[in-house]
Specification:
Strand order of the largest sheet: 1-2-3-5-4
Strand content: 35-45%
CATH architecture: Beta Barrel
Shape: globular
Structural class: alpha+beta
CATH topology: OB fold (Dihydrolipoamide Acetyltransferase, E2P)
Order of helices and strands: HEEEEE
Length: about 90
């Protein structure tokens, strides 16, 4: 019985940890020399696949579907610090 409870709790914890931010969100494109970001609900998220934002200008409002990411290749070209709330991968953008 304890093993079943332990397994159930473990599966629940794993499922919580794998939750993704995957619904359509309103966002603002933010670009500077440190990289590309999406401002969602007042928080900037570093975009791992910034090439998806090539057709969009800094300050442009977009609707995006994103996945949260644990890590990202940082490719900034300056030493400016840009605080962010995590990394995202753009799945779809309008």
């Amino acid at each position: 019985m304890k093993n079943n409870l332990l397994i159930a709790l473990s599966l629940f914890a794993i499922s919580l940890g794998s939750c993704k931010m995957s619904n359509l969100k309103n966002a603002e494109v933010v670009k500077d020399c440190t990289g590309s970001y999406l401002k969602i609900d007042g928080q900037d998220f570093f975009v791992c696949n910034a090439e998806k934002l090539n057709d969009f200008k800094d300050g442009e409002e977009v609707q995006v579907t994103v996945n949260m990411s644990e890590e990202c290749n940082l490719t900034g070209v300056c030493l400016l610090y840009h605080p962010n709330s995590g990394y995202v991968e753009v799945i779809n953008i309008k």
